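User: These chains co-purify. Model them together.
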Amino acid sequence: MAYISMGEVHRRITEYLNGFADAVSSQDGGSLARLLSLSSNSPSLLSLADALNVFQDANRLIKQSDKCSQFAEIIVPLFRSLQNYRLGNLVDAYHAFEKSSNAFVQEFRNWESAWALEALHVIAYEIRVLAEKADRELASSGKSPEKLKGAGSFLMKVFGVLAGKGPKRVGALYVTCQLFKIYFKLGTVHLCRSVIRSIETARIFDFEEFPRRDKVTYMYYTGRLEVFNENFTAADDKLSYALTHCNLLKEANIRMILKYLIPVKLSLGILPKSCLLEKYDLLEYSNVVLALKRGDLRLLRRALQEHEDQFLRSGVYLVLEKLELQVYQRLLKKIYIIQKQKDPSKAHQLKLEIIVKALKWLEMDMDLDEVECIMTILIYKNLVKGYFAHKSKVVVLSKQDPFPKLNGKPVSS
Amino acid sequence: MMNQGGNIQTVAALDPSSAQVKNRYVVDENQAQTSFYPSAVTSSEPASWNVQSVANHFTENGNISNPTYHHVQYVDSSTRQDGTNSAAVATSSSLATTNVQQDYSSYASYPSSTDPYGYGSAGYPGYHNSYQQQPNSSYSQPVGAYQNTGAPYQPLSSFQNTGSYVGPASYSSTYYNPGDYQTAGGYPSSSYSHQTTTWNGGNYANYTTPQYSSYTADTTGAYASVNVASTSLHYQQHYKQWADYYNQTEVSCAPGTENLNVSTTSNQVCQVPGVSGGYLPTSNSQTTPSFTPSWRPESSSSQTPSLTPSQTPSLQPSVAVSGAYDNYWKHGAPSFQNQQASPMRPYFQKPLESKTSYDNFQEQQKAACPQGLNLQYPSAHQAPQSCHQPMQPLPSLDAQRTSKLQIQTNPRIASNLPLGLQKTDKDSSNNNAAAKPAYISVSFPKSNQKVLPNDAADSVLKPGVFPKSLRVYVERALASCKDDTQKAACQAIMKEIITKATADGTLSTKDWDNEPLFPLLNADMVDKDLQSSTPASLPKYKMSPSRRSKSRWEPLPQEKSVDKLASMNNDTAKFGGWIHASEKDKKPMSGNLESKSDGFSNTRFSLMEQKSASKPFQRPVKRQCLIDRNATDNGDASSDSDKEQSLTAYYSSAIALANTPEERKRRENRSKRFERAQGNRAVINHFKTKNIGTGNLYTRRASAMVLSKSFEDGGGRAVEDIDWDALTVKGTCQEIEKRYLRLTSAPDPSTVRPEEVLEKALLMVQNSQKNYLYKCDQLKSIRQDLTVQRVRNQLTVKVYETHARLALEVGDLPEYNQCQSQLKILYAEGIKGCHMEFAAYNLLGVILHSNNKRELLSSMARLSDEAKKDRAVQHALAVRAAVTSGNYVMFFRLYKTAPNLNTSLMDLYVEKMRYKAVSCMSRSYRPTVPVSYVAQVLGFASTVPSIEGIDDKDSDGLEECVEWLKAHGACLVAENNGEVQLDAKASSSSLYMPEPEDAVAHGDANLAVNDFLTRTPS
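Assistant: Joint model of the two components:
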């Protein structure tokens, strides 16, 4: 490490302290946020961290500064966090940062206006990122990673500070989104419910008044939750909202949204154009779409198998699997059309044998009972209109609209 | 932390007075203690409980301000009581033991009270549901409990009950009265009543304290309870009373916590006024100053006939007793309780047995109390149950009923709890005897007796050390507790008091006789009284008073009374049992009085014990009597009771012993914390006396445990401070067979089996021809020993795997889930085992039971490629595909070809799948579909190959299918050729899912002990 003179050390530290005090006194949330943004790796913070590592008695400086001494509770652990962060002790950095953040939130409570929201958001973000890093460090040393959980409960507290009535509420959605990120990462999505409830049931604050980026993030995560619940209509609404309000230049975000929106749309019977899949690099869905178009069960199963891990991880596997019934429907429709060309008068009677044969061509080895079962399910789910005559083993199709389109409605369960 | 915060807030809202704040603090301490306690000692489960309760609490605060409020108060009062009680106990040298028990009970009470709220979304509704159910079954419940006791492996049943928290309470009620469950309509009203009850409790507490000092005060207390039941006005009255209470508490309690001397004087003074204040409001409604008159009018006017008779009788006897007691109290009778415990056991057993199932329940309760472990669970259950019962029978009576119910519930809970405990109770008889008196008159001195039994068992050991007066005082305090929860709280308070007193050196100098009691949650006590009274008929009551009078003066007549009871009619027998208990209590008291000197009391104890030992022989006869009575009352009960009898002896001795030592240990620990030298000595003395006395009754092992525990106590380590790492033991026990007993304290190496022995034990279980309950018990003990020794290797995996398979075979899902979750951890640590097999089970479990898409996805994503090639896993995945797509044909094919025990898990989904399939079929097929086809596709009977041949098999399956279809509302038509067809169109609108016959409120029929036993191949 390059040698830093004591005077330089003093200068850097006092500079920071002055900056902090000025930001608070002038209620400048932006510059305060910059002072707190640990992971921004801004040169000023880095040099401060170096200085702190040389100079061990920063606390005295803080206490001496009359402007900053009242914020010692915030700044002392913050400096410690900064030091540790710089040295790569992420767990210690997290601990110190959480302490500092707690003190900050305490202070924030006392500020009547919401000027420091930006700084608070930085803290919410930093604590999450820091916790993730600390967890990685913990996991690599064989300890149980639990910092992210701790960050979650801290953010829950922050949420409590913001969620009330008043000008600070506008910042609540940002914290909510940070919470979502934590919960999704931890796999404890059920914890989202309480936050969602408090966001959606509050009459005192219109959802549209939240910042747009927060709204999009929020809709994205709640939409994903609806996908988990296989609540496709709601998922479609939320994800579509996120898509339409998303910054068009942020292709990565659009891709993330589409990753869930496409399966949802598919299960509502709406197929994407292949250029969309290409543009956003979502080609794993292309075979699925193709299978739906062709009624090719084999293709669907192959596509699912091929990307199984990916689909399982993103959580759309079960959604895509359910498309099978639509593929069957398509297949039946094809058979029906062919029959109609041959003999229009008998076209509405689909013999079970023929269907089994068609499946055989697709290398689907299914016997009569199984196919019969699938036919009954198709009829039951209203993908096919008609009935099944058990005696003659024939699917008798309705003469009117035998294969109703979903048109944005989910398959009835 | 949350709890504390909640409490504080609520308290503040109620009364911002400083006294309350103090109260709150006390509560907090207790809570903290309780939470630490279980977590440290037993396992993670208790801890989780606490968390739950906390959570509930929290929600309550947010949603329902009133309930929380009451709740909090309740807790406060109880805790205070504990402090006093415990203190008293400590003085009497039984300190350590009593304290332990108290802690437990308090702990239990706390969760229970909170839990009920948490049940419903609103919290309250749920609570009330349970409430209402119980009342109906008040009579039947005892029977149920009785049966439970009868079950050979009680530990199992108890365990299950504990596992599902909500379940137990609702379970019993549903089991016996399915209708009640649904009918619980009056939520609001019930909740209201509940509140009132709590208030009563507060009032009651005030009164109880006075009881000892002034007789009239006691009666007033009783009155107050009655009043509450009758009118809504009570609420306000109570409220005032509470205020009074608080005022009193300010003076008395605050000092009490910190300085015993101060508290005593102040308490006395304050309490009297408080009582009078509380009394006045009540008196308006029931002006009569004398007990008996006031009771009678009330009963006649306000309550249903059934209730009234019971109440009146119960009260009268109690009054008489109290009258008798007054003298006693003054004279220093108080000592009797401690001493009683030992003598009581033997004598009481007989009476209890003779009593009806009801009595047994009570006994069970008592038993549960002594055993610290069991208590936690039971208490939680108890609270809700008790509430339910009162509500249903008489809406107006709600408050009283609730209170009554509580009493009943307690027994019930106990019954639900480990059977072993019940048995122990019977065997040990200490608990039973003590408990019975409590039934009769909760509010009165007798109630003390009830409570005392628990303490008594503990205290018995320590009679010599503490002054009699202190003992009496403790007894009094305990007597005033009607609930386990109260007792627990009481015990905690007493502990504190005693410890302080010992620390101050005022233990022996203090005037314990005049020391005021801490205010208890009286509501519960009243309730108990009512409950007891309800079942009983007037004649019984009459009997009781007369006996009591005799007993007072004649210490020995107990045996006679028991015999008399046996000869009595069923009804009388029930009551008689209670009476006996009370009599017994009295008798022991008299004996104690005579032998006031400490040395004397000790000798007496031993004598008493000997007597008790000799009595067991008489038991059988009495039991038979019981059985007969049961038979008359309930046919079912009798068989259970038989089982009970046989099994009781088995479990009882071991359990009882274990309990006492453990409790002692805890108490010792605590006492040591405060005063190292004194407490230890006292404890040791205790042990010695106990050992001598108990030598006959208890097994070698038990004594060993006691000794070891005393040893540990000597170390002076508080249970809360136990470091599990340091306590990892190396077992030395060479016995292959060992019953499961949940640890409440540090394990004793001499009872823990080393790994080699455990291996043999596992082999023994695997080759055993005995039934599942036996095996489960054994496996649990093996698991315990492994855990205690921190053995985590292939043997551990093997044990869990074996247990999980056995559990699956008999459909014991709770146990299976325990094993499965442990196995997950063990496999994750890289320990080899049948990983694939259990991965498949896990998948099936998620698919078929949790229906949680996320969980399913994550467990699918976790499967390794290797796992996906495994046959069992593939099967499970195929089942998943069949279920998600609704492919019933595939499902039942897989069902028939399931490897390992996959079938067992699929079994649990078959009904649902069939129903789905038939509704799908009836929607899709036209016009008809042959039933034979349905039977074939839906896997009817083909899984159970019959001996007769294929034709029979088919027809069997067909028949079964027809039955099933009919049961589900399908329309069947017979064709000309005789083939039965399913009329699809008609069926599509008529299908329904019938209420499962074995449905239980908590949703897991496996928790129904009787059902479970019948299903288990023995």
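The radius of gyration of chain B is 29 Å.
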